[in-house]
């Protein structure tokens, strides 16, 4: 196979346990987002738009939805003669096999894959961030600085800096120190979990890290601090623009709502940087004579007779006459029957909300703004739901709800 | 149905579609928000199990080729069989009829593996499964089976269609285009099932005896000679042959029953994917009875209309009873009624444009007003 300059390794094995019900059946990168996408579409589309056509996708946790979604990568134009997309699950060797123990271990276990392509650089990406970024700019920066490693950073508000891995840098952007969740941050440049390494050097560090019994085999915790300690040339690539880790239900909901702003920071309508996805074969949606829609995004195949305000609606959703949906995320194939109300809720695929039912998050005093209703739930007519509901439940009116 | 190949014959009258077919064949006219006319017959064939489809193109076919490309969206990018574009021979004089076109492409027909062939036009809008018609064809041991739909033929949409008349057994006893006395309400759907050998005989026979028109010389003249049967189709069928019928057939899809039947009943309708984002409705959007495709950004009012992919409707704009094709921009406070905007039209702010229901105003592709 011809040599590749840069190979992307996309970490997509995470469970995303803080997303709770949403990741009960699938890995976090496969969670639906933004009215038609899955979270992983952003990283894969960035690869395509940046001219990177060889991507290894490391999967582990409940990979069925993710594997079948990625397929041969045609949706992102990654079905290539040379390169393309490779789904890389953990595997068994002669002396048994192991799960991916950490981010660095996942790359280490696929050393033979990267060796077979023999790239100059390896780009390590995370499959659970929402952002648009031109990786070719970052590679250019890496090459110009003759760096051994480059880490993409974003300026975060100072008051939030202690929640992130923070880079302290010299005036030429060379990284002097990396501090994980510092109590008194000296900088507000947070690591975005996007790294470029010179492959031959990374390879040595991965081998050494694998031997280290005390290591947690994580890039942020082990490999990068070790490289810094050894005085390798590491630079911080500054990124400005929208970037969000949708790690919790609240941040997931907020990132969806961000798309509804008058001028959203992340413009999904920009033809110059398309976000690709597997498109459902569905007709344009239909809005009935008495429907009302404002500040919302709505996808193909929907039939809408009721009211939709400040919400994200995925394909094939039915919203009956008199129904009201506000500040919510409604995923594919959901039916909201006549006169039902959905307020501050995330409703997962195939769920039915019966006539006159009310599904509403409690006021913010509860600590969280919104409730999550799992996949394939049936909420009967006139039921009132104000707590999370796990997938595959039948809720009769007045039966109470499942505890969180 | 694996033993059936499909041929889509684009020899269709286009003059009544005026500006809409100036740059493209009827088959490639955008329809229903995100489709082209040909998607319906092509998807119906594919959903019925046909895996080998040849398209007899005539002229102006760049737009069509751009739409179909490898045929991948219809699952027709196959190692064997799949999609074939069959262009006319370069020497073919204009108006020499479609027999010539078939004749020049006989090699493709002969070398295909399938024993049966389904021939159809592109401008019949329907979503149907051909399995039952094929079973009917075999059970009757017919030479040719013509699919027809019984309906009101006074309607403008079905002008210049062939009308068939069947006996009790279903055998066609008469078939005519614009007959002086209409005793039958059975409208031919321009879809014919036959054995491949029958087709080859028909074509070579016509070519040898000066026949030029597939319908007239190939089918109509053989009524009574060959065992030609009519298969009654019961579902929805639309036909596009003029601006008025184009407008009418689009508007019909604002009836949710129609929408449901055409897009979901017997399988999905495939088309070229554009990876457009979901539609964004802003604060002051007001929509009533409309079909809107992905990629649109809407701030104004849209009533009884169809918007194609990537249309921008600015604040205060008012669109009523109109069809707005791909990537049009309707400026602030502009007002449109009974208008068909072709692709890439830009209507600047404050402009008012109005057509009539029976004569919608057509704005040519790329016009800036």
Automatic annotation (TrEMBL), chain A:
Domain Nucleotidyl transferase: 8-261
Record's keyword annotation contains Nucleotide-binding: yes
A biological-process GO annotation: glycogen biosynthetic process
Enzyme Commission number(s): 2.7.7.27
Family: Belongs to the bacterial/plant glucose-1-phosphate adenylyltransferase family.
NCBIfam families referenced in this protein's UniProt entry, alphabetically: glgC, PRK05293.1
Protein name per its UniProtKB record: Glucose-1-phosphate adenylyltransferase
Source species taxonomy: unclassified sequences, metagenomes, ecological metagenomes
Gene: glgC_5
TrEMBL record, chain B:
Signal peptide range in chain numbering: none
Domain spans labelled Glucose-1-phosphate adenylyltransferase/Bifunctional protein GlmU-like C-terminal hexapeptide: 282-350
Domain Nucleotidyl transferase as annotated: residue spans: 17-204
GO MF annotations, alphabetized: glucose-1-phosphate adenylyltransferase activity
Stored CDD domains: ADP_Glucose_PP, LbH_G1P_AT_C
Keyword terms, alphabetized: Glycogen biosynthesis
InterPro entries (UniProt xref): ADP-Glc_PPase (IPR011831), GlgDAde_trans (IPR011832), GlmU/GlgC-like_hexapep (IPR056818), NTP_transferase_dom (IPR005835), Nucleotide-diphossugar_trans (IPR029044), Trimer_LpxA-like_sf (IPR011004)
Keyword rRNA-binding: no
Pfam family, one: Hexapep_GlmU
Gene Ontology terms: biological process: glycogen biosynthetic process
Homology family: Belongs to the bacterial/plant glucose-1-phosphate adenylyltransferase family.
Name this protein carries in UniProt: Glycogen biosynthesis protein GlgD
Organism: bioreactor metagenome
């Amino acid at each position: 196979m011809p040599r590749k300059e840069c190979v992307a390794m996309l970490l997509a094995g995470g469970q995303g346990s803080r997303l709770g019900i949403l990741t009960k059946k699938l890995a976090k990168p496969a969670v639906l987002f933004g009215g038609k996408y899955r979270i992983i579409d952003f990283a894969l589309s960035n690869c395509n738009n940046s001219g990177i056509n060889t991507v290894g996708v490391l999967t582990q946790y409940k990979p069925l939805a993710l594997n079948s979604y990625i397929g041969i990568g045609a949706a992102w134009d990654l079905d290539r003669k040379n390169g393309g997309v490779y789904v890389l699950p953990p595997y068994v060797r002669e002396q048994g096999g192991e799960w991916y123990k950490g981010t660095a271990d996942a790359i280490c276990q696929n050393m033979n894959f990267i060796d077979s392509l023999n790239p100059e650089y390896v780009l390590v990406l995370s499959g659970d961030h929402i952002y648009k970024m031109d990786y070719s700019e970052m590679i250019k920066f890496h090459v110009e600085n003759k760096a051994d490693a480059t880490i993409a950073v974003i300026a975060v508000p100072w008051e939030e800096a202690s929640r992130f891995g923070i880079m302290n840098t010299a005036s030429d952007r060379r990284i002097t120190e990396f501090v994980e969740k510092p109590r008194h941050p000296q900088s507000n440049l947070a690591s975005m979990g996007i790294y470029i390494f010179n492959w031959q050097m990374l390879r040595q560090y991965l081998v050494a890290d694998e031997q280290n019994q005390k290591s947690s085999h994580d890039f942020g915790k082990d490999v990068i601090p070790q490289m810094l300690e050894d005085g390798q040339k590491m630079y911080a690539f500054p990124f400005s623009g929208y970037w969000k880790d949708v790690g919790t239900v609240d941040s997931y909901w907020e990132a969806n709502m961000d798309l509804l702003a008058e001028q959203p920071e992340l413009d999904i309508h920009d033809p110059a940087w398309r976000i690709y996805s597997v498109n459902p074969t569905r007709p344009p949606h239909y809005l009935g004579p008495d429907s009302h829609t404002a500040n919302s995004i709505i996808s193909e195949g929907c039939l809408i007779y009721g009211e939709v305000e400040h919400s994200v609606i995925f394909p094939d959703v039915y919203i009956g006459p008199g129904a009201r949906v506000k500040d919510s995320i409604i995923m594919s194939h959901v039916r909201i029957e006549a006169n039902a109300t959905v307020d501050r809720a995330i409703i997962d695929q195939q769920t039915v909300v019966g006539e006159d039912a009310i599904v509403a998050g409690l006021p913010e005093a509860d600590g969280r703004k919104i409730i999550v209703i799992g996949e394939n739930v049936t909420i009967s007519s006139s039921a009132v739901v104000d707590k999370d509901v796990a997938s595959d439940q039948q809720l009769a009116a007045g039966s109470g709800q499942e505890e969180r | 149905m694996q033993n059936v190949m499909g041929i889509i014959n684009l020899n269709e009258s286009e003059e009544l579609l005026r500006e809409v077919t100036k740059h493209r064949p009827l088959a490639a006219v955008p329809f229903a928000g995100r489709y082209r006319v040909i998607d319906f017959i092509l998807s119906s064939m594919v959903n019925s199990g046909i895996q080998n489809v040849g398209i007899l193109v005539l002229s102006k076919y760049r737009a069509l080729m751009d739409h179909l490309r490898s045929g991948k969206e219809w699952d027709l990018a196959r190692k064997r069989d799949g999609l074939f574009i069959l262009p006319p021979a370069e020497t073919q004089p204009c108006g020499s009829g479609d027999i010539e076109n078939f004749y020049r492409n006989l090699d493709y027909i002969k070398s295909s593996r399938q024993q049966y062939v389904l021939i159809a036009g592109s401008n019949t809008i329907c979503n149907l499964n051909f399995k039952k018609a094929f079973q009917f064809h075999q059970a009757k041991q017919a030479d040719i089976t013509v699919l027809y739909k019984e309906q009101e033929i006074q309607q403008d949409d079905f002008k210049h269609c062939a009308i068939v008349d069947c006996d009790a057994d279903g055998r066609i006893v008469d078939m005519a285009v614009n007959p002086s006395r209409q005793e039958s309400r059975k409208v031919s759907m321009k879809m014919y099932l036959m054995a491949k050998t029958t087709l080859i005989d028909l074509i070579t026979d016509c070519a040898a005896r000066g026949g030029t028109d597939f319908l007239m010389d190939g089918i109509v003249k053989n009524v009574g000679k060959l065992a030609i049967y009519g298969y009654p189709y019961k579902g929805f069928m639309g036909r596009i042959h003029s601006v008025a019928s184009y407008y009418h057939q689009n508007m019909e899809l604002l009836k949710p029953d129609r929408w449901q039947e055409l897009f979901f009943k017997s399988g999905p309708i495939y088309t070229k994917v554009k990876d457009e984002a979901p539609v964004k409705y802003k604060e002051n959007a007001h929509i009533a009875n409309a079909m809107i495709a992905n990629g649109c950004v809407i701030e104004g009012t849209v009533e009884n209309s169809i918007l194609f992919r990537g249309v921008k409707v600015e604040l205060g704009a008012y669109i009523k009873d109109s069809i707005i094709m791909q990537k049009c921009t309707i400026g602030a406070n502009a007002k449109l009624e009974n208008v068909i905007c072709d692709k890439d039209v830009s209507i600047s702010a404050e402009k008012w444009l109005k057509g009539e229901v029976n004569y919608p105003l057509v704005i040519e592709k790329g016009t800036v007003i």
